[in-house]
Amino acid sequence: xxxxxxxxxxxxxxxxxxxxxxxxxxxxxxxxxxxxxxxxxxxxxxxxxxxxxxxxxxxxxxxxxxxxxxxxxxxxxxxxxxxxxxxxxxxxxxxxxxxxxxxxxxxxxxxxxxxxxxxxxxxxxxxxxxxxxxxxxxxxxxxxxxxxxxxxxxxxxxxxxxxxxxxxxxxxxxxxxxxxxxxxxxxxxxxxxxxxxxxxxxxxxxxxxxxxxxxxxxxxxxxxxxxxxxxxxxxxxxxxxxxxxxxxxxxxxxxxxxxxxxxxxxxxxxxxxxxxxxxxxxxxxxxxxxxxxxxxxxxxxxxxxxxxxxxxxxxxxxxxxxxxxxxxxxxxxxxxxxxxxxxxxxxxxxxxxxxxxxxxxxxxxxxxxxxxxxxxxxxxxxxxxxxxxxxxxxxxxxxxxxxxxxxxxxxxxxxxxxxxxxx
Length: 423
Description:
single chain; alpha+beta; seven-stranded mixed sheet; two-stranded antiparallel ribbon; 12 helices; 17 strands
């Protein structure tokens, strides 16, 4: 060890000039490990050739110092980090087309919400008081669907003043004013009117509120409703036609008037002057927009019809066609705020069967709309005598042969070959 130190002192010690080399000058000293230079060893001493420098030791030697550096270096403060604030780029103004699209989406959403709310409300308001399954000895189910549509002369919901202005009289209870069997199926759609004075066989029944039993009898079709309500009316129609009634819908005077007024009136054209003191109808030849009161008088009057009750059923079908067309216009159906009064007006006196759902009721409405616009047939049950003398007064007698053929075609969902009467 001492030999090494002595050797360094004697020959290997650097000259005095070497200690005076400035720090700046040392920056030009070649880096150890460069071409022709061995890699640096510990403490800046060149490492022997073939021996790699220890890990973490810099290959550039520390600068020589003069030994006069006695002051300590002041610590360098860490850089102050300035928080970066990210600002959103200003929104570009919406184009006119995008604004229209957004408004349309909002409007459609509002309409769907209103329509959905009205739909749920309407379904809860259906008066399902008719139990078709309770009737005994029903005919077997046929093909297609049969709806019984009844217009009753119920005064329920009418004030005394309204009864006088509508000339409905003060009769209590409910009677049928019109009856139609609407058949839908693969064989087409047919609306068949049944005159209320039709002479039919009324089956025996038991009046529910009194328990009194009634024997089978012959009477006018309207009497079945008066004696036993919708249940006996359905049983009577099924017994005389052999058609199984799948659904029942009935509307009274008040609901009829309100529906017509809710759609803004119905336009009707007549080919002659009509003046009926009993119903109060007074129309001149030509076209008129009938409000609820005039519409009710139009479908009820029969004294001015050459064929009496048959003429009235044709007027009823004609008006129903115009009403369905008016209620089905886009201005009513597409706008729930316009459709809601119409739906509410109809529901006030609407009576349906227990299995009637709102979609089924809408299917009935669509079928009526279709058949009255030409996609089907409208006809009366075939008749052989419009003035049959009976113990109950003048009645309408069906043509048994033609009526039976018509009923068979409807029951089997076949195209109807009975020609509708000429207008």
